[in-house]
Amino acid sequence: MALLKRRPRGGEPRPLITLTDPDGGAAEDYRSLRTSLIYSIAGDRPRAIAVSSPGPGEGKSTTAANLAVSLAQAGKSTLVVDADLRRPQIHAAFSARNLRGLVNVLVGEMPFAEAVQEGPLVDLSLLTSGPLPPNPAELLSSAGFSGVLDEARRSFEYVILDTPPVGAVADASVIAAQSDGVLLVIDTQRTRKSSVRHAAHELESVGARLLGTVMNNVRAGRRGYHGYRGYYYSGGYY
Question: How far, in Å, are 17, 90, 105 from residue 95 at the CA level?
Fold first, then answer.
């Protein structure tokens, strides 16, 4: 089991603990998540991983960003893509500019390689959202997005996609169906079980591969534990 401190309220990305405190316990927890993803599925390693949640404010962007950093710290060439074209957060998490990005590539304004930005680590690159479009679902359903994902797979060992919440719009299901697997991020103190079931069924209905759940705000009840713990990875959905 991997544990993190309680995330801040408001749904905004928290400081990237994998960068600010790489030797701390929280960063070690993300390394445990990284190890689970790399080694838990023998012979069929997921490379393009969508990170979503049943609803907003559950920590999906923070999870996506820290997972990408952790992979890069292990020497894996990694691209983190902000595929949330309604409420992008990845540029804020990395304090990056968002003048160009995924949308510019999808509408044909620039090639994929030109839109990708260097990240804070040698093996980490960013593809922010770019300007918000009026038709996110249509862009993500297009052949252009499939092409971007194919090019990203050829260029990087891992592609981490931050998506909108599953329960809010159809975008997440569209992205998930084209990815190699999905991590579902859940806030255990506020997310209803029915919302989790609905999100899982929605993903399964489009043929998405649910890799597991990342649970925030897990209240530890054992003796010796205290306060709130922020993260637990389960390699399957039940």
Answer: 14, 8, 21
pLDDT means per 10 residues, the chain with 238 residues, are 35 72 82 82 80 90 94 96 96 95 96 96 97 93 94 97 88 93 87 86 91 76 35 41
- What does the pLDDT read at residue 13? 57
Neighbouring C-alpha atoms within 13 Å toward the C-beta of 157: 14
Helix, strand, coil: what percent of the chain each, to 5?
35, 20, 45
CA distance linking residue 202 with residue 34, whole number of Å: 25
**Helix, coil or strand: residue 147:** helix
Residues in the chain: 238
**Where is 78: in which H helix or E strand?**
strand 78-82
C-alpha 77/C-alpha 119 separation (Å) is 11
Alpha helices in 156-192 (DSSP H): 171-178
